[in-house]
Amino acid sequence: MSGNIFIYIAVMALTTYLIRMLPTVLFRKKITSKFVKSFLFYVPYAVLGAMTVPSVFYSTGNVMTAAAGFIVAVILAFREKSLLTVAIAACAAAFAVSMIC
Amino acid sequence: MKSKLGFKHGLRDGVPIGLGYLSVSFGFGIMAVGEGLSVLNATILSLFNLTSAGQVAGLSIIASGGTYAEMALAQLVINMRYALMSLSLSQKLDKSFTLFHRFTTSFGITDEIFAVAAGKPCNISRSYMYGLMLMPIIGWTGGTFLGAAAGEILPEAVKNALGLAIYGMFIAIVIPPAKKNSGVLTVAATAIVLSCILYYVPLFDNISSGFSVIICAVAASVLGAVVFPVPSSDEEESE
Can you tell me the ipTM of this complex? Predict the structure, then answer.
């Protein structure tokens, strides 16, 4: 470490906060463009999709256990179980498979 | 539909996010101490940043003695998606959001908090938003503290399995709407295909993971907006 840890943290936190804060403070009117509204409606699903695959398969250090957890998560999510249920079941499945393999 | 969602409702919706964060940030705490941060540094870092990918990148910049400019640029690229989310969410905030509350609640925009708030069928109130933010902030900061302080105790297999928690949550957020809405399904599938291309094709090796998310999200969402435009505001936003 060469710089000051607190300055690093302050730079990180300030940059990240400005990114989050500026759009909501500057855009206080309702957007009327159908294209922009549709675009913004789809952003979260696109972000989560891109962040999940393929990264999920490398999240446990073993592709087999991760795949087991992924499959369990997909099945339970398809049955519309709660976020917490899906997350815990995915971890449990990965853990169970890691005990077997 | 004017169903008013209050603080308690937000708090309840935030519990699974908070628990997911607790497990994920536990790993971050272990990592931070491994890179030479004190338990206090790691905990403060998580409290003020509340972001996963950005913090992991930030940690490696701190450890390698990078410049402050490099730090700012890395956070800008990796966390630019929050600007899209913030903009998107600004369209759903009800009249209780005065300027002051926009300044404070925008701190809580993360992938999961945003996804839950954006998934509500009605506009959201500031009390709901504060409720929703609370458990994730506690979970993320507390998990980092616990991981930094006590990471050595947990068996490896448990630590590894906990790595899936956050993805399980992502999956549970995307799949239910994708079942009912072909636009959401197409957008999510497109983003996944693009993300795999950027990840596996050697040509794109030097695209960072944060930037990759931006490319995939923008391309897939533009496609969705062109091919499956969302029905006009009155029906869609149900306000």
Answer: 0.85
